[in-house]
Amino acid sequence: MTATVHRIDPRPQPSLEPMVQLVAGDMNMVNAVILDRMQSQIPLIPELAGHLIAGGGKRMRPMLTLASARLLGYTGTRHHRLAASVEFIHTATLLHDDVVDGSDLRRGKRTANIIWGNPASVLVGDFLFSRSFELMVEDGSNKVLKILSNASAVIAEGEVNQLTAARRIDLHEDRYLDIIGAKTAALFAAACRIAAVVAERPESEEAALDAYGRNLGIAFQLVDDAIDYVSDAGTMGKDAGDDFREGKMTLPVILAYARGNAEDRQFWKDAVEGRRDSDADFAHAITLVQATHSVADTLARARHYGARAIDAIAGFANGKAKDAMIEAVEFAVARAY
Question: Are 236 and 224 in contact (CB under 8 A)?
């Protein structure tokens, strides 16, 4: 595989639609598995799980498994169940995250923990994790099981790392990148890598798809963290300022704090520690991140990781699958514009 330098295409409004169309038939099979495996004799389980699974998410992670398989020319069916397993891992982590964060809105809808309570959300998340592992075991590949189980453990580590870093004004960029690399990028990477395993491709292609997913995941999270300060619930599926009010040290805050004067730094310290969380405080925070170019620089870094993702699949054959995967990166980065 040869390394070719690519730049993210600046054309307006890149879309996820090429990937959606590419994997539409496979996605129908994945959705059938999801619907079947979220069932239970306990009615609350499919009711609560269905609220989130049917909540308008892009299904980006399972689509990456399917698109990666298409990129490799895989014609079997193992990736259907594994893509469903990936989606169950993601959904379980969302249920748990909303409890930890005390969130009340996701994708523009009330969160499950607000409707059914924290205990039910945690337990149904556990149920979905268990279902994901059943699907892994049924696949029969120890390598697949190792990749996805490791990703699940890394995600949990990332969430604990973020929890212990919450409301810590001294959080450094390196630790922030460790957190998002674990809690977001690990599952993107695993979702792509397992396609190479089921397609029985060499380690070099596994590594290339892992790098594509990992860099895309980091770019995706960087953009999410940036648009908390520039967007609204209609765009991002949560209320603007949620991260600010929860005292999360995301990259825009880390940069704005480092670049601020003494008065600005005191504001950020008070905000992160929970003493400045009004609408007026959030408006001031927006002013500070703009004045210090912190959002712009966060988005620039997202573009850097996006370019790395595109470079990672440069050696694969050109075609609809590769084009769709490249445009998915462009879409992930362009969400902030």
Answer: yes
